[in-house]
Structures are given as structure tokens and as C-alpha cells.
Write a structure and sequence with these properties.
Blueprint: E1 4-10, H1 18-34, E2 37-41, H2 61-72, H3 83-91, E3 95-104, E4 107-115, E5 121-126, E6 149-151, E7 154-160, H4 167-175, E8 180-184, H5 192-205, E9 209-213, E10 216-217, E11 238-245, E12 251-257, E13 261-267, H6 272-278
Parallel strand pairs: 1-2, 2-3, 7-8, 8-9
Antiparallel strand pairs: 1-13, 3-4, 4-5, 6-7, 9-11, 10-11, 11-12
Helix pairs in contact: 1-3
Length: 309
């Protein structure tokens, strides 16, 4: 496969407005395509924006207001607001990974949505465990949808935020022979060191490219008609940090901070081979007689209905 350009979108989202978010995502895909990109990756739940408000006291009126808005702006992957995203992926022949806040029944999920260059859904992955305050916002995925998808730009998979700290999840992706990993994160500055260590280690551990997509955000990006107290404003600070990493951990594109931008870098899948030669965690460097991962990939519905014949 010939080398190609990958892009990480470091734009501020349209806060809790998936209609405008879908239109903005389509514009970002078009701009990345003009830069030569064939793979476009967005940050965690970028379509509606990361819930920075979740760090407030749950009993506060501001938290309650954002919780309601968050629920109302969550969608399914079949919602028409995503049509511009699907159309842009097809028009520009781009593979796209975008974070959305998905709703099923009364529960919200932090979901990575995978879209092929034909504009059709490849699959989705719900975050396995929301972190800290996120647990009052999102439900937990059941692990059945963690997957790697063959595409014209390689075998694509990914994780959300602190899922990167889950060693079994990383090993599962290795076993599916991931080649390009979409690492979706928010823009918190306190995460910089964690993300640097996690994603560079992942690039070595799974001998894959890693596209790190992080959000640029500030309180003045929140619509004026939304609640915003002096206490809450600092919670909305996200300074980006998107980057692209080669197998082995070398930066192709160093982290970029403190501005909206599209970070690009060249992906050459032939670079994977030498890293796999050194380390293949589910191949020649595994010891299944000593350590073995058991992964229950079945769907786990809360109501499993058995119909009469």
C-alpha cells in the first residue's frame, strides 16, 4: 500500500448541537481532504463536545441544566444529523473516525463511530468504562463492539481516553492485527503526560500508527444562552495536543497545543514490519501457556427475549 496522509481534527466542537456538529465535521473532512488526507480522526464525543461540565457538583443548577441538554442532544448512528458526515466521507473518499454521544433508550454512551470511504458505517465502539465524573454521564459498553476494520488505509481500530490504560483492550486490538489506531481524547492539559506515555507506548506495544485527536475548547466557545458560572468556566479549558505517532513510538507530527488546527502526518504501513519483528504481543512474543486473555465478545442485552416457536 502506498503511503498516505492522516489527519487529526483539533477544532472546537459545536457544544451540544449535533446538527451544527455534523455540518462542522463535514467541513473539517473537506478541509483535511484538501490537505491530502485519506484518514480523518476526531476527538472523544466531538460531535456534541466533551462534557467538561461533568466536573461540577451534580447538585448544582448548572450541572442539572447541562445534564438535560446533554440528554436532549444525544443521538443514534442513524440520526439524520450525521448525513453530512457520511456524505463528506464519500465525496472525499476518506475513512473517518468520529466521537459521538450516542443514546439508546434512556442511557448515553461515549461512542467511536467508524465510517468507510464509501460513506457507510463500518461499526461503532462504546467506551468500556467511563472515567471518574463521566460515570454520571455515560453508561458502559459491553465489549462486543471492540473491533478492527479493514479499509483502503489499513486495519483501523481505536479507543476512547482512559480505555488506553486497559491492558486487555490493547491486547485484544493487537490480536486483531490493528495497523492504525484512532486515539480519541479530550483537551485537558493535565492529561498531556498521560497521553504522551500511553499513546507512544501503544505505538510500540501494538506496532501500529496512532492518530491522537484532542479537542481545543474554552468557555467562550459555549453558546451565550447556556449556563456558565465563574466556577464552571475553567472546566471548559481544552488546549488540544493532537499528534501522529509511528510504530515504535516516534512522533511523525509532534503534539500541537493552544490553537485550532488540523494535524497531519504520513502513514507508511511498511514501517510496521520491523517493529513486529521485535515485538508481537499476540504472536512470537506471547506466552499463552503462562498468560492468556479471555474475552467474552458476545452481546450482553439486559433483556434476552426467547420467542415461542
Amino acid at each position: 500500500m502506498e503511503a498516505y496522509i492522516a489527519a487529526a481534527i483539533q477544532w472546537a466542537p459545536e457544544v451540544l448541537d449535533p446538527q451544527k456538529g455534523g455540518e462542522k465535521a463535514a467541513a473539517a473532512i473537506a478541509e483535511a481532504a484538501e490537505m491530502g488526507a485519506k484518514l480523518v480522526v476526531f476527538p472523544e464525543v466531538w460531535l456534541q463536545g466533551y462534557p467538561y461540565w461533568s466536573g461540577l457538583a451534580p447538585s448544582s443548577p448548572e450541572y442539572q441544566a447541562f445534564r438535560q441538554l446533554s440528554y436532549e442532544s444525544s443521538i443514534s448512528i442513524h440520526d439524520p444529523v450525521l448525513d453530512p458526515v457520511y456524505a463528506a466521507a464519500k465525496e472525499h473518499a476518506c475513512t473517518v473516525v468520529i466521537g459521538i454521544q450516542e443514546k439508546q433508550g434512556g442511557t448515553l454512551y461515549c461512542t467511536l463511530l467508524y465510517i468507510g470511504p464509501d460513506g457507510k458505517v463500518l461499526g461503532k465502539h462504546r467506551k468500556l468504562i467511563p472515567t471518574q465524573a463521566e460515570r454520571l454521564v455515560w453508561g458502559r459498553g459491553d465489549g462486543s463492539d471492540l473491533d478492527v476494520y479493514p479499509t483502503p488505509v489499513g486495519r483501523i481500530g481505536g479507543l476512547n481516553c482512559f480505555e488506553h490504560q486497559m491492558a486487555p483492550a490493547r491486547l485484544a486490538l493487537s490480536d486483531m492485527n490493528i495497523e492504525v489506531h484512532a486515539a480519541a481524547w479530550p483537551g485537558h492539559a493535565f492529561l498531556d503526560g498521560i497521553i504522551d506515555a500511553s499513546t507512544r507506548n501503544l505505538a510500540h506495544e501494538n506496532a501500529c500508527f496512532v492518530v491522537v485527536a484532542r479537542e481545543f475548547m474554552s468557555a467562550d466557545q459555549v453558546p451565550d444562552n447556556f449556563p456558565m458560572s465563574d466556577e464552571a468556566a475553567p472546566h471548559w479549558n481544552g488546549h488540544g495536543g493532537s499528534a501522529i505517532i509511528a510504530p515504535g513510538g516516534e512522533y511523525i507530527a509532534e503534539p500541537t497545543f493552544d490553537k485550532e488546527c488540523i494535524v497531519t502526518g504520513e502513514i507508511d504501513l511498511s514501517r510496521i514490519a520491523v517493529n513486529k519483528w521485535f515485538f508481537d504481543g499476540t504472536g512470537h512474543y506471547s506466552r499463552p501457556d503462562v498468560f492468556q486473555l479471555r474475552w467474552d465478545k458476545r452481546e450482553k442485552p439486559p433483556v434476552d427475549t426467547l420467542e415461542h416457536d
